[in-house]
Amino acid sequence: MEVKVLGACCAKCKATYSIIEKVVRENDLDVTLSKVTDMAEIVKYNVMTLPAVCVDGEVRIKGRVPSESEVKALLGV
Amino acid sequence: MIQQFADWMVYGIFGLDATAPHGTAVNFFVYDTIKILLLLFLISFLMGLVNAYFPIGRLRQYLLTHRLYGLDYLLAALFGAITPFCTCSSVPLFIGFVKGGIPLGVTLTFLISSPLISEVAIAMFLGSFGVKATFVYVLSGTLLSMAAGYLLGKMRLESYLCEWVRNAQKQSNAQSEQWDTGNVSFAGRLPVIVGDSWGLVKKVFPYVVIGIGIGACMYGFVPEGFFESVLSSHKWWGVPMAVMLAVPMYANPASIVPIVEVFVAKGIPLGTAIAFMMSVIGLSMPEATMLKQVMTWRLIGIFFGVVTLLIILSGYLFNCLL
Fold first, then answer.
1. Is some CB atom of chain B closer than 8 A to the CB atom of A10?
2. How many CB pairs under 8 A join A and B?
3. Structural domains present in chain A
């Protein structure tokens, strides 16, 4: 599975990244996690509010920090 | 009720003397903090509700498909006010708006009102200055964003946008349908909205405490009438000086309102104080660097210049009216 966190400058984006990182680590998931920080790249995903989480090319969360259980559901844990 | 709770906690639990100065000070602090946090929770909950049912993607769609004859500026200003987002969202929001063909002026109105009118500041204002001053703040913030957006729109500044943005602007509106979907039931949304409001209260809490703390120190140590002599309404340069001082500064609205409260208590006119606060939270260096990704420095300069000028004007206006 490929997970991308869009946006990396603000505290909310960092929080989102670390929650996903934690879930992946704790459950030993086969996930490629990366950050997209380039704005020209981010706007291609058609999101207007950050942070956003993109799973296998599809935007699933936008504009807020997901909870841990939400991330688990998203990653199929 | 809050007062009773504060009395019970400070005099009952902590055992402080209700007649001693430090007893009443702690009581006041507890009362003020609880009141502000409750207001904060309530207001961010209300805004969360509106946002859940009228998300920003739908506003964009509405602005694109309706001819509104100026009403679009009002909508942009109001939605900017109730939409919370962090500074790094300003770029994708900006692109999202101009891409489909929403005029630059309307987009800028949204970008101005969003930090200028914050739910945190509204809650703090209600708690500190009451309903009338809060109304003045929200009204002047809305009018100011509309006026600034309108003026900037009239200036034909499109050529000062970065090149990749201008290219995006030319793109067709074909993909606009995929902007916002998602139909979750009210019961499914409520926990998320409540959770977000609670998260905001937790996040802002330290800033409230810092702000009230600084405010309390200033209240105790700054001599009566000190600001009066510097920033009084009788001197014409009071408002511009307060605004010029505030533009480069950035502080969390939760910290700035208690400080502004002390300014007012020490003799600064409310209009000057609101102008000061709006420049602190509305215009900042972090925002400028963020906007640099879509705008040239020249456009950022014009943008900040127009907004600064209008904040100064609104300061004068409210000093006359209030």
1. yes
2. 61
3. 2-74 (3.40.30.10)
